[in-house]
Amino acid sequence: MWELIKANQRRSVVLFVLMGIILIGLGFVFGMVFDHKGTGGGAIVGIIIALLVWFILSLVAVTSGSAIMLSASNAKEVTQDVHPQLFNVVDEMRIAAGMSKMPKVYIINTDAPNAFATGMSPDKAAVAVTAGLLARLNRDELQGVMAHEMSHVINRDVKFMTIAGVMLGSIVIISEIFLRSMIFGGGNRSSSKEGNGQAQAIIMIIALVFAILAPILAQLLYFSISRKREYLADASAVRLTRYPEGLASALEKISNSNIDMPMANKVTAPMYICNPLKKKGMKMADLSSTHPPISERIRILRAMAGGAGLANYQSAYSQVKGGTSNIIPGGQLKQTEDIGIRMGIASEVMDNKTTARSSNDIMMKVDNYAFINCDCGMKLKVPSNYDGDEIMCPRCGARHEV
After folding, report:
1. What would the mean pLDDT of 55-65 be, rounded to a whole number?
2. What distances in angstroms separate CA 325 from CA 67, 230, 314, 330, one per listed residue?
3. Is 115 helix (H, G, I), strand (E, B) or coil?
4. Are 251 and 151 in the same domain?
5. Helices then strands (H, E): number in the chain?
6. Rounded to an integer, what distance in angstroms lies between the CA atom of residue 17 and that of residue 372?
7. Residue 394 DSSP symbol
8. Is the pLDDT higher at 221 or at 72?
9. Which of 49, 179, 272, 312 could form a disulfide with 307 if both were Cys (CB 3.0 to 4.6 A apart)?
10. Taking 70 as the threshold, does the pLDDT of residue 38 lie above it?
11. Mean pLDDT score of the chain, rounded to an integer?
12. What pLDDT sits at residue 192?
């Protein structure tokens, strides 16, 4: 696994350098545009401003990125009594992944099924799952999702996506400022030398083209590597669970949901196991998505045979995708891994009504509702702000202390 982590880190460095070149190029070109004296000093100032914007955003991301992500997603930290099975599965996958510290566990109060992980290091990790996910998945499926998220943490994907996302945001912000300044008269410059007029016009055109293309180019770089990381996280997850069908079935259930997630946005979307911004009738992935097609990921997982190792995933990947490109580093493929595929655990299939009720109960637990079981079979759900000392069962009239 160490080679897989190192390969991920090398890709991160490449992306970091390429996006850094775009960022510095933006500062340089925009500085030239606003260099009224034509001395070249404006280009240096532009680069300094671009790097300053990136530094400030990076500082915020490193120190408070996880807290901001969780807060923006309306995630609430919960204790084991809210959902014991979730904590048990997270702890199992933590041990399997070799993480020394238990991640913090959060639940998002929405019926839409999804999950994500955050944290700049394995010792500061957190996992967030939706109530809808917990209500729909059986234990094997939940294990597959948690293994996928743990894999993002141990593969250092979360750290990469945070830093790369900040750099992408910096490029978008600087481009946006420049374009707005052009609209509101920032480009109306005069020169002391008539001969410079043509050169200034050329610089202006180059700057405008760069302002439009730079964010697009940076996004394509970000998306291309982010998609590969999803495949790697799937491969690592199967290695941890030894059960490809668990993750495949979970992805299928998540992709079949058309429930909106209003708490998700373009900044947080790449962190989720499946794109939370999908709309009805739209394909699960396109050129503007950080996620590869769900149907493709499922086919790869279900094409695995002979074992749950990384080489087995690579073989299934090549079979489904075609071609000879490797998703797993070559050195890792040469290592012999005898990881057999285990049997799944039989579980009860729930109908939509039962699933909705279970999801609602989980959301109520997160909101500190009290649950009282009446002798008549009625379950009373008492909100945390209830003022009375007792409550009456609406079915049999029995009174219960709160």
Report:
1. 80
2. 37, 16, 9, 10
3. strand
4. yes
5. 12, 8
6. 58
7. T
8. 72
9. 312
10. no
11. 82
12. 47
d(CA 402, CA 363): 19
Banded pLDDT at 262 (limits 50, 70, 90):
confident
Residues 201 and 293 in one domain: yes
Q: Two tokens at 80?
A: 């084991």
Rounded Cα gap, residues 289 and 220, in angstroms? 9
CB < 8 Å & 24+ apart, contacts of 283-286: 284/255, 285/227
Please tell me whether residues 253 and 382 are part of one structural domain. no
Residues 346 and 398 in one domain: no
Q: What pLDDT is stored for residue 8 in this prediction? A: 62
Q: Are residues 331 and 386 in the same domain?
A: no
Phi, psi of 369 (to 5 degrees): -70, 150
- The predicted model gives 36-44 an average pLDDT of 71
This model's pTM is above 0.85: no
Q: How far is CA 90 from the centre of its chain?
A: 17
Range 221-235 average pLDDT: 80
What average pLDDT does the segment 346-363 reach? 79
What is d(CA 109, CA 97) in angstroms, rounded to the nearest whole number?
A: 27
Cα–Cα dist 274/266, whole Å:
13
CB atoms within 10 A of CB 67: 11
Query: What is residue 144's predicted lDDT score, i.e. its pLDDT?
Result: 97
Task: Report yes or no: 5 and 122 within 8 Å, Cβ to Cβ.
Answer: no
Catalytic site includes residue 149? yes
Strand partners for 65: none
- What is the domain count for the chain? 2
Q: Which helix (H) or strand (E) segment is 32 a member of?
A: helix 2-33
Out of 284-293, 331-340, 369-378, least confident range: 284-293
Give every CB contact of residue 329 below 8 A, 6+ residues apart in sequence.
3, 4, 6, 7
Q: Are residues 40 and 87 in the same domain?
A: yes
Amino acid letter, residue 392: M
| Mean pLDDT of the region 274-291 | 58
* Strand partners of residue 371: 381
The whole domain housing 393 covers 368-402
Whole-number Å distance between alpha carbons of 143 and 238: 10
Same structural domain, 260 and 388: no
Q: Are residues 218 and 253 in the same domain?
A: yes
Among 141, 149, 230, 245, the active-site one is: 149
* 59 φ/ψ angles, rounded to the nearest 5 degrees: -60, -45
